[in-house]
Design a protein that fits this description.
Blueprint lengths: L3 H13 L1 H13 L8 H13 L3 E6 L2 H4 L16 E7 L9 E6 L19 E3 L2 E3 L3 H20 L2 E3 L3 E6 L7 H8 L6 E4 L7 E5 L1 E10 L14 H21 L15 E7 L9 E10 L5 H17 L10 E3 L4 E2 L2 E2 L4 H15 L5 E4 L5 H7 L4 E3 L4 E2 L7 E3 H18 L2 E3 L2
Parallel strand pairs: 3-7, 3-8, 8-17, 9-16
Antiparallel strand pairs: 1-2, 2-7, 4-5, 5-19, 6-20, 9-15, 10-12, 10-13, 10-14, 11-12, 18-19
Bound molecules: zinc ion (ZN).
The site of zinc ion (ZN) has 5 residues, from α5.
């Protein structure tokens, strides 16, 4: 940990750059970097890193190169514009410990725009909050990594160990962006991911699986509905059976989620089916996202999902002969419990106390993050720790400006100790 004088200098240096940091965060949040539309936001990040003297690696994710790696999730969309960006700051005379700073640039859809108080991609700051889709999850965190290093530069210093600043895509659907960074060879002794964790360190995260259930029916004129089989209404018992499985799984405890209310959440998140109001629908597809405990075997989970659906179909005369199909179209993500990296964890605690004046809390999250790639597949402890945000994935997503400032101070202090400092060139 830097001495008291340097600590104060670093904290002040973050404050000096903070207006610029918020302007940068607003610029970044203005990009509607929804899935498949991240390229211009990635251009912006690449430019920002280049200007600061990082060596920038920008590449198109190659599915062929990652599809056999552990942690890969199936891809049902085009990767024709799927750009990852990594900025490397390589130390002149490395003497400290290397570090990955990782954030995702992709954001989730907005839902009906008219439900937002202000348009989601016209971000603004008021009353101490930065509003906008993706501001909290997690462009504020991504920008914080850039400005933490900037604060050190303001003091004429730079990290005395290699720092890799990763702006990845696909975090909200597969994690294949972070996986592609591993495949590309980026490694460090620890990683920080400033997801919106409410200023807490993430001790555990669930696994997440996505699947689609494709249900058939027999079309008929609604005047003779009894002769048809309704694909939409047939989904109801299947969904009920899946929620019963959810209740069974939540009844089992996991030590990392002790005290967490309902850690495993299943939701039918999208549904489409049918063609005509006066026709019994002949097809329906629903998407479901499920949570699983760390340590759960993904193949076993898939078998259980399929057997629950198959069993629920047996009581339906049509479905018993036309079994629904299950398609895995995104996340096949294992859970992750933060283990190892005690030194990095206690350093983060110390830095947090210096910036916040209070003890750092820990949390177990009922969502996933890219931390699993570092922790499970690269033996690198990943510290998921970031600002305070509300309504991520909802309307009027917002992130606390003061929390951004302090988290940036924490990251800058962490870098100064973990990597050490050398004189800037
Ligand atoms: Zn996120």
């Amino acid at each position: 940990m830097p001495d008291a004088e340097l600590t104060q200098q670093i904290i002040d240096a973050v404050d000096q750059g903070f207006d610029e940091q918020i302007a940068f965060t607003l610029d970044l949040t203005r990009f509607p970097s929804l899935r498949g539309h991240e390229a211009t936001a990635q251009d912006f990040m690449a430019r920002a890193l280049e200007e600061r003297g990082y060596t920038v690696d920008r590449w198109l994710i190659d599915v062929e190169a990652i599809k056999d790696l552990p942690g890969f999730s199936p891809v049902m969309v085009s990767y024709d514009d799927a750009w990852n960006v990594v900025g490397s700051l390589r130390a002149e005379k490395p003497k400290g410990r290397s570090l990955i700073l990782n954030g995702h640039i992709d954001v989730v859809p907005t839902g009906p725009i008219e439900m937002w108080t202000t348009p989601p991609f016209m971000p603004e700051v008021h009353d101490g909050w930065l509003y906008g889709r993706g501001g909290g999850d997690m462009k504020a965190g991504l920008a914080a990594t850039v400005f933490a290093v900037d604060a050190l530069a303001r003091l004429g210093a730079r990290p005395a160990a290699d720092v890799f600043l990763q702006s990845v895509i696909e975090e909200e659907c597969t994690g294949n962006g972070a996986l592609a960074c591993l495949q590309r060879g980026y490694r460090a002794e620890t990683a920080i991911i400033p997801e919106p964790t409410q200023n807490r360190l993430t001790a555990a995260q669930v696994g997440v699986m996505w699947f689609q259930v494709k249900v058939q029916g027999r079309p008929a004129h609604v005047a003779y509905a009894g002769t048809g089989a309704n694909a939409i209404e047939s989904c109801f018992p299947l969904i009920r059976a899946l929620h019963e499985m959810e209740a069974r799984w939540n009844a089992e405890q996991h030590p990392a989620f002790e005290g967490v209310d309902h850690p495993l959440n299943f939701v039918v998140s999208k549904i489409e089916g049918g063609d005509w109001t006066s026709s019994v629908p002949s097809w329906c597809t629903f998407n479901m996202r499920i949570g699983i405990y760390p340590g759960a075997d993904l193949a076993a989970v898939r078998r259980e999902v399929e057997s629950v659906i198959a069993e629920a179909s047996l009581s339906d005369p049509f479905l018993s002969n036309h079994p629904p199909q299950v398609v895995y179209h995104g996340f096949q993500a294992e859970g992750y419990v933060l283990e190892g990296g005690e030194e990095a964890q206690s350093l983060l605690e110390t830095c947090h106390a210096a910036a916040f004046g209070s003890a750092m809390e820990r949390r177990a999250t009922t969502a996933t993050t890219d931390a699993r790639f570092f922790g499970l597949y690269a033996d690198t402890p990943a510290l998921v720790y970031g600002p305070y945000a509300e309504d991520i994935h909802g309307f009027d997503e917002r992130v606390s400006v003061d929390s951004i400032r302090r988290v940036t101070q924490v990251i800058a202090l962490f870098i100064a100790d973990w990597c050490g400092l050398e004189k800037a060139a």
